[in-house]
Here is the input.
Amino acid sequence: MAAVTIEKTAYRGWPNCYRIANGEVELIVTADVGPRIIRYGFVGGRNMFVELAEDLGKTGGGQWRLFGGSRLWVAPEDPVYSYGADNEPVDIRIAGNVLTARAPVEHTGVQKQIEVELAETGSVVQVRHRLTNKTIWPLRIAPWVLSMMAPGGAAVTTLPPRGTHPEVLAPTNPLIVFAFTNMSDPRWSWLEKYIVLRQDANNADPEKIGLFNPETRGAYLLDGNLFVKKYQAPAGREYPDMGASYETFANERFLELETLGPLRTLQPGEFSDHLEVWSLHRGIAVNEWTDAEIDRVLGAYLQ
Here is the structure.
């Protein structure tokens, strides 16, 4: 059985990063900025996350930078609470196979933490995200995890189980559109069981939708590799953005797979945790974006 190794390394201009690997897949967690997972891919393979050249290796200052990778935000989206610059060094703690990256307390009084645990074999990663209220007053916020995917792929999400009329009359989930959502954009495929959004480097128009699914799933297919993230969204809770546990966004540079936790009023010192489970799969080919083809090729990975 392969062992998980965690070692300090330089990466893309940052001298202090940590590589977590098990012989099959590897992750890179930044320590000079963050908390952020800047790389996830097969060993020797391409990064499934986008890396934005203009930000790589940069540190310090109050300017919010995209960087790339997967990050933790505060929902609902707010110019003050969401766009806290993660430009300062983070505290890294290692305990066995688990690496924890904890940021300094932001100007908002929120502290962010990401905990990464890679399985000893295979590609499965548990990524635990935490927001802690370090102020002296209550904060009503939710964790929001945004994985920024490399360009050129296609994102798939699942809808809750379908039914028939008139046997199932009640709605099963909200579908949230934004002011800039264009449902006629050719990057979308609206299917019975799935929604597909393709990233197109030649289309700069931003696109975004949200939805709720207790079994929240986001997958991204790129050059035969499939990235999957799963989140179990508690039902019966209030979620940001009119009830979204999942959102996806695309522009000409990247595509985002986003999961959102329920809104909670955090008293001083309280925290909210949010667990995603990631996996990588190779040799994946989808011939057409239809329900039947997605069921055949991706169905087992999206269960």
Notes: The chain has two helices and 21 strands. The longest strand covers residues 139-149. The two ends are 26 Å apart (CA to CA).
